[in-house]
Design a protein that fits this description.
Length: 412
Amino acid sequence: MTEFFLWYGIIWLIGLVGLPYSFAFFSRLPDRGYAFSRPLGVWTLTIVAWWLGNIKLLPFTGNSCWLVLGGLALGGLGVTIYNRREMWQWFSRWPNLRLILIGEILFFLAYAFIVNYRSYLPALNQSEKFFDYGFINAIFAAPNLPPPDPWYGGAPMNYYYGGQLYMAVLSKLSGTEPSTGYNIGMGLIFALATLGCYGLGSNLIGLWRGKNRPSLLGGLVGASFIMLLGNVDAIRQFSLHAPQQLAEGKFPPYFDWPATARMVYDPMPDGRLLDILTEYPIYSWLNGDLHAHLLGIPYVTLALALILNTFVASKGWALVNLNPTSPPKYLLAGLIMGAPYLINAGDFPTYLGILIVGLALTEARMADPWRWRLVRWLMQIVLLGVALVFVYLPYLTNFNGMIKGKPFPEVA
């Protein structure tokens, strides 16, 4: 019970530190990035501590993570002072405060729901849990970076391990063993993803209405439909089989739960139908594997927030304008868009492609000469690419996967 409230307090503190950065960066969104401040704060903290550990400036310990969080808090204080009037105006409006209040309640309920569920099934020896726990534990135990690969001694971790990395950082901050942090983290990530969907829904409907005010109902519908309702296969199963089973006295009627996550079939040359895994969020959380696709959901919502913030721009340089404050903003954009690459690499090309197309559509709406719009579009893509490479350089230089075709190092 102590760990439950400890993790909640730490994530609340990290969200508070991340809020000034989120408020300044997501300036075109009606909620000013409130719903995305927690994942942004967690990821910024994680990457800064990871960078410092990779260049051996600080050991990768809990004290170092707290030191980094303190540095980010000081930077956030400066951002707050700079934007104090704008922040005061936004936070002094009752509709915005109501959005925050409901968001906080939603976050806590989502967190408590999954942690309570995991308390009945805490074992980590089924499905892919041992694999995920092994990576979290290896990163948690590593005093130096890059983290060691638990399956290939002497080599750096050869996997997109960003999700396990931020779980290890949270475990270090809280002083909680990964075996406990695994189950608490399941609830925390579910809550982060739920709040992210709440933010996307409230912003999308608010922008669609043209009032530049977040929609509370849109946020609740977005969070419910994405994180809880999944698909309609349960209704299909019960409508097809439940009446007959109930008539035969079978209660409750049989429900094929795994089949709800295997609804797409590919025909094979021999005539067999190969079922394709199509997990929806709540299925993944009930299954309990803290795997890359689940760990990446909060950061998919963060990337979509950046894309939306870019798409609704009313003038050129929709991603980041060129001025003295551009470098840190491009670095932050690279940090956000590259998160899926380090957490669940398969997501990365999809959301980067959406951003590139969104930038093109935004520039197409502008009244400038087409040559200047094309140059502006290309320059933003190039600068974002430079930022992406810089932010994730330690991973790019240490990753030794089959894609690169490099041999593994010899182990004595």
